[in-house]
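SEQUENCE WITH STRUCTURE:
===
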Amino acid sequence: MAMASSCHQVMLQAGVATTQLALLSSSFHSTSSCSSSSSASYLGSKLCCNKASSSLLLRNCIRKMASIVERETVRMALPSKGRMAEDTLALLQECELSVRKLNPRQYIADISELKNVEVWFQRASDVVRKLRSGDVDMGIVGYDMVREYGEDDEDLIIIHDALGFGECHLGIGIPTYGIFENISSLSQLAAMPQWTEDRPLRVVTGYTYLGEKFFQEKGLKHVQLSTADGALEAAPAMGTADAILDLVSSGTTLRENNLKEINGGAVLSSQGVFVANKRALLERKEVLDVAHELLERFEAHLTAQGQFTVVANMRGSSAEEVAERILEHTDFPGLQGPTISPVYTTKNGNISVDYYAIVICVPKPKLYHAVRQLRKAGGSGVLVSPLTYIFDEETPRYRNLLAALKS
């Protein structure tokens, strides 16, 4: 309460009444040298770095006031539409996490297996914005969105960087005809004499932050970025742009619109990632606990994807003898080594052990080759079944997360 009272006094001293907030917001947006206020998004403005010290103090107080608002639930944001949304829900389902939405028109849901967790469906860009502001604690979204709308914010921390869906890359596409016909690399594109201060290379994109940063790093001086929401591939043919900067997966859309990629024109690779607000992880144990459980489920499922359990019986005089045959005559010893156990049979009324059951783990592409090796080594009665989860002693990604939180 003392903090809130102190901040309230500062707000009054700074002249931030309701009407003045609107004036400040207008003034802030018209100033070019602004820094974002990630914890005060509800003000709808950005505080300028060249304002008086009272404005800076006001921003700090707003951040503190936002941080003391305690929320009992853990909020997770998911994409609301498109292929990314479908793949995200499929991953959660495969990890035995059921997202329940009472009404298909609602933007909020829950996960029955995770108590005290709210799921909020948002546009991909808003997933990142709300993570930065602290309105949600964690989310799943494309890495390209994290980089574009996260703007390298240190409050965003990627917990799992490879969820296995939404693979693509952000790259430059130029026409296959005209002055670009013989251009095949970024260096050639940059060296074209057509681009001057008065006639820059016009690039249309939805990734202005990443685009500007990329062209600056590559030393392209005369570039003009413009934005568009969709159908970027049509811009060069219409004459409204020289090139596009967009996501590419198979490249089919580029080719169908007489566009091509160029060497050195890839900005970044992207796929679905699990990301969280760093301050939420540090300040609220329940957020870290949920993140840990989700990470373990994701990791166990993704590690097991494409893996099969192979069980076979092998004749032998001892478990050690069977183990030696597997280790010396096959390429598939298992995760740490083969699991070997005796197979009990009856002979003349007596219980004996003539066979041993072996269990190994094999990737799907090498499954038939592994079975042939086992049979050649004396295996029989081979059983094959897909794996659902592989839980490690502790996922390395969680250790990496804890190390990142301490740094």
The chain has four domains: 2-67, 74-166+272-303+397-406, 168-269, 307-386. The two ends are 31 Å apart (CA to CA). The chain is about 40% helix and 30% strand. Residues 1-68 have pLDDT under 50 and may be disordered.
